[in-house]
Structure formats: structure tokens, C-alpha cells
From TrEMBL:
<feature type="transmembrane region" description="Helical">
    <location>
        <begin position="188"/>
        <end position="208"/>
    </location>
</feature>
<keyword id="KW-0902">Two-component regulatory system</keyword>
<keyword id="KW-0597">Phosphoprotein</keyword>
<dbReference type="InterPro" id="IPR003594">
    <property type="entry name" value="HATPase_dom"/>
</dbReference>
<keyword id="KW-0418">Kinase</keyword>
<feature type="domain" description="HAMP">
    <location>
        <begin position="209"/>
        <end position="261"/>
    </location>
</feature>
<dbReference type="InterPro" id="IPR036890">
    <property type="entry name" value="HATPase_C_sf"/>
</dbReference>
<keyword id="KW-0812">Transmembrane</keyword>
<keyword id="KW-1133">Transmembrane helix</keyword>
<dbReference type="InterPro" id="IPR005467">
    <property type="entry name" value="His_kinase_dom"/>
</dbReference>
<dbReference type="Pfam" id="PF02518">
    <property type="entry name" value="HATPase_c"/>
</dbReference>
<dbReference type="InterPro" id="IPR003660">
    <property type="entry name" value="HAMP_dom"/>
</dbReference>
<feature type="domain" description="Histidine kinase">
    <location>
        <begin position="269"/>
        <end position="483"/>
    </location>
</feature>
<protein>
    <recommendedName>
        <fullName>histidine kinase</fullName>
        <ecNumber>2.7.13.3</ecNumber>
    </recommendedName>
</protein>
<dbReference type="InterPro" id="IPR004358">
    <property type="entry name" value="Sig_transdc_His_kin-like_C"/>
</dbReference>
<keyword id="KW-0808">Transferase</keyword>
<keyword id="KW-0472">Membrane</keyword>
């Protein structure tokens, strides 16, 4: 099923599909325009022929009814004379034939440049078909193309019927030449449209390439990402949809990289914090198997093994806490006194047996309340205390404190150890510590500080470190005193209570 799904879909590139659709729609539009223009021009040819024929027929009828013989100054009594007089005055248009028939004679009006009159006059079959047709007008096909025609009849002054007393005028228009000109113009228009279509295809190809370039860049960036290198990012250019897509992709890559680094850090810390106690515990157990171990030494070995087991348990608890830090219910907030949390942490650190050979004192205690999870705060402070113990000597004093200012509650642990340079201090909270080589100390954020940072971020706060200025090194974190949603809820509850009170009083 998976192979079938992979084989489905078009193998044509998106660029070609874009160009293909643009060219197809443009070609259909140009073809429709060309066909419409040819139809319009053909209609104009037929309309022009019909107008010219109707005008000639009307003029003949008027001449036959009102024309006077110049010899007698009376209406024409001879149809031959009438037809000759009328035809002598005519100048046929191109392709137009004006033919008169009287007393068996066929007369044509025309010029040497226009042979249409000769074509009809010298084609008795075609002329006979027109004269014998009962209809006054029509369309016929001839050796010279399509002919549109009309005819009119005139009688002499006596009004008698008969071949000698009647004359017929035939006006025909051979539209083949005009139609060929219309076709030539349509062909020229089609050629121009084809050139425009080729130009459109070229522009569409370039435009599609420009549109697809960011997508190709995204594809190349995605292809360059490996399990060991997630640093590649898509260049963001402009503010259009593709730029927003690139920004979204970069944000996703940031999250993936952060998650990947966190996982690597998690594994590295687990290996470092569990590996060494495990080896020492194995050595202690092996030592216990030796029969000649004195009883007193055996007790020390058992005590050491228990300490390692306790350390491994604490490490597993810290790793579990770090793994749970992304859960929505990781923290359970409530309004608590900041000074009370500080006092509880200091009391737990100073209890007998917790941290031998260290002195703890509260340097500052905030007289404020904060919306926080006291258990998670205590866990984070415990990590800071462990960090301070690891970097101080026996008998040194460790300060614990809290403060509240500008809507933030801060908790910190300080010692008088060697100062850190700014880059080193920044790396402690910004960079995950890579797995150290054997016998080397890793640089960057360790498991304890990772827990502190996770607790701070879960509260919407930040972890920080200050070093130098004659005050030693302080590690701490700052949390918002009030939850934004809680403030809104308090205002709503206050408004509801006031509304209820006012309602009850009224």
C-alpha cells in the first residue's frame, strides 16, 4: 500500500505544470479571440456585400420608375435603351457584377480592373440559374467562389408583359476575394497570437522559476539537514506567502533542533550521572564479595554503595522531572508567600545530614506573594544548592535569597567561589553541555541547571546567572508574581460579585 501511494501522482515538475496551465489557458483564449475575429470579419464581408447589392437594386428600381429618355423627355419605351443608360452610370465595386438583360441581350457594367462582371456575363449557366430562380435574392457557388446575388425587373411605359417589354437587372457580389482577405488577416492575427503565446510561455517559465526558487531552496535546506547537523535554515526574502512559509519552516526547524539537542542532552546527562555511580557501585559490590574484607571496611563499602544508589535515584528523579517539564500540568500554581518558600528551602538545606560541612543562611527574603508551584520552585532551588555545594569547599557559606520587584519574584543561591567570565556564564544557561570525553568536564548547561531552566520556563519566567563585582556567583530564576489569566479571572469574579451585590440591594 505504501509503495502504491508513493507511485501515485504526477512526475512532471511543478514549474512545468505551472507553465503548462498558463500556456493552455492563454492558447484557448487566443484561439477563441482569433476564431471570433475571423467570424466577425466573415460576417462583415457578407454584410458589406448585402448592403451594396440592396443599394444597387434600390437605385435601379428608382431609375426604372422615374428615369426619362433624354431623346423624348418621356419614360423609356425601349428596355435596351433603359438598361444601357443605367449601366453606363454604374461603377461596380471590387468583386461586384452588375448585369442587365433586355430583349435577349446581356449587358455588363464594369471596368478592366474588376472582372466580376465578365465572370457572370460569360457564364450563361450561372446567370440562367439566377434569372430562373423564383426568389429575388440568394447565394450560389460558382467557379469563382461564393456569389451573393439579387435581381430586379423593369417594364416599359406600356406596362405590357413579354420579353420585349421587360428588362432584368442582376447585381451579384463574388465574395471570394474579400473572404480571402479576411482569412489572410485572421491568419496574420493567429501568427501574432502564436508569437504572443511563445512570449507568454517564456515569461511564465521565468516567473515560475522565480516563484519556485524559494521552494527549491527549502527542499535543498531540508535535504542538507542530517541527524548530526540541524543548523541549516531557509533564507527569508520579502514578506509574501513564501516568505511566511520560510519563516514557519525555520521556526519548525528551531523547535526540532531544540528538541533534538534536549534529547541528546538528556541522554548525555543520563549516561554521565548514572555511568560513574554504576561503575563505583559495581566495584563496591565486587569488593564485598571478597571474604577477607574486614567488618569495619565492609560497613564503609556498604555505606558508599548506598550513597551511590541514592545518587542514581536522585538522577533518575531529575531526569523524570526534566522529561515532564513540557507537560501542560507540570506545574500546579497557587498564591503563596515568597518568603515562606525561601524559608522552607533554607531549612531543608540546613537540616542535619543534608549537606555536611556547609553553612546556609538567608541573605534576603521577599515579603510578597506570587502565583507559583512551591514544589517545583523548591526542586529548582535544590538543584541550585547542589550546584553551589559542588563549587565550594568545606566550611564555606552559601547564601539563599528571594526578592520581588516589577511584578517578578526571584529566587537565588549564591556562593563566594571564583568568578565566571561573561561568555562562560552565558553558556551555562544557553548551551547544552555536550557529552564530555573521559576525564574531562563538559562545558555548558548540566542536568541541574536544565531542571532549573525548565521550571522557570514552565512558569513563564527565566533562569539567570550573575558573577563578579565582589559578590561571588549567583544562580537564580525569576517568575511572574501574578498569572495573566488569574488577573482576568479575578477581575471577572469581582465584577460578578459587585453585580450580585448591587442586584441584591436594589
Amino acid at each position: 500500500m505504501t509503495d502504491l501511494q508513493e507511485n501515485q501522482g504526477s512526475t512532471v515538475s511543478a514549474r512545468l505544470r505551472i507553465v503548462g496551465w498558463i500556456v493552455l489557458t492563454t492558447a484557448l483564449a487566443l484561439l477563441a479571440v482569433t476564431a471570433s475575429m475571423r467570424s466577425i470579419m466573415s460576417g462583415q464581408v457578407a454584410e458589406s456585400a448585402n448592403v451594396g447589392i440592396a443599394q444597387e437594386i434600390e437605385e435601379f428600381r428608382t431609375f426604372a420608375a422615374e428615369g426619362l429618355d433624354p431623346k423624348t423627355a418621356r419614360p423609356f419605351s425601349s428596355m435596351d435603351e433603359l438598361m444601357e443608360r443605367y449601366l453606363a452610370r454604374q461603377q461596380p465595386m471590387a468583386g461586384e457584377a452588375i448585369i442587365g438583360q433586355a430583349n435577349g441581350r446581356v449587358l455588363a457594367a464594369g471596368t478592366a480592373a474588376n472582372q466580376a462582371g465578365s465572370w457572370l456575363a460569360e457564364d450563361p449557366v450561372l446567370l440562367g440559374r439566377i434569372l430562373d430562380d423564383a426568389k429575388p435574392s440568394g447565394i450560389l457557388e460558382s467557379n469563382h467562389g461564393t456569389v451573393r446575388w439579387a435581381k430586379a425587373e423593369a417594364k416599359d411605359a406600356s406596362g405590357a408583359n413579354g420579353a420585349g417589354h421587360q428588362a432584368h437587372l442582376v447585381v451579384a457580389h463574388f465574395i471570394g476575394g474579400a473572404q480571402e482577405e479576411a482569412d489572410r488577416q485572421a491568419t496574420m492575427l493567429f501568427g501574432v497570437a502564436a508569437g504572443g503565446l511563445a512570449l507568454t510561455a517564456g515569461i511564465a517559465w521565468l516567473a515560475a522559476g522565480q516563484i519556485m526558487r524559494p521552494i527549491r531552496t527549502m527542499s535543498e535546506t531540508a535535504a542538507s539537514i542530517t541527524a548530526n547537523d540541524l543548523s541549516a535554515r531557509v533564507p527569508v526574502e520579502g514578506r509574501d506567502d513564501l516568505a511566511q512559509l520560510a519563516s514557519t519552516l525555520n521556526a519548525m526547524l528551531d523547535r526540532v533542533e531544540a528538541s533534538h539537542l534536549a534529547q541528546r542532552h538528556f541522554i548525555s546527562e543520563a549516561r554521565e550521572h548514572l555511568g560513574s555511580p554504576q561503575r563505583k557501585l559495581a566495584a563496591a559490590l565486587q569488593k564485598l564479595n571478597e571474604e577477607e574484607v574486614p567488618r569495619k571496611q565492609r560497613g564503609r563499602i556498604i555505606s558508599t554503595a548506598q550513597a551511590h544508589i541514592s545518587l542514581m535515584g536522585q538522577t533518575l528523579a531529575d531526569l523524570e522531572l526534566l522529561a515532564q517539564s513540557s507537560d501542560p500540568d507540570f506545574i500546579q500554581r497557587r498564591m503563596v508567600p515568597v518568603g515562606e518558600v525561601t524559608a522552607d528551602v533554607a531549612a531543608a538545606a540546613a537540616r542535619p545530614g543534608a549537606y555536611p560541612d556547609r553553612q546556609f543562611r538567608i541573605a534576603e527574603s521577599a515579603k510578597a506573594q506570587a502565583w507559583l508551584d512551591p514544589l517545583r520552585v523548591a526542586q529548582a532551588m535544590h538543584q541550585l544548592i547542589q550546584n553551589a555545594v559542588a563549587h565550594t569547599e568545606d566550611g564555606e557559606s552559601i547564601r539563599i535569597g528571594s526578592a520581588a520587584a516589577k511584578g517578578m519574584a526571584s529566587f537565588w543561591v549564591a556562593n563566594d567561589g571564583p568568578a565566571l567570565d561573561p561568555d562562560q556564564a552565558r553558556a551555562l544557561l544557553e548551551n547544552y553541555r555536550s557529552a564530555p570525553e573521559a576525564g574531562q568536564q563538559g562545558s555548558g548547561m548540566g542536568l541541574g541547571l536544565a531542571v532549573v531552566k525548565a521550571v522557570a520556563q514552565a512558569h513563564g519566567g527565566t533562569a539567570w546567572v550573575e558573577s563578579g563585582n565582589g559578590h561571588g556567583t549567583s544562580f537564580g530564576f525569576s517568575l511572574p508574581q501574578a498569572d495573566a489569566g488569574q488577573g482576568i479571572r479575578c477581575e471577572e469574579e469581582f465584577a460578578q460579585s459587585m453585580a450580585s451585590s448591587l442586584g441584591g440591594e436594589s
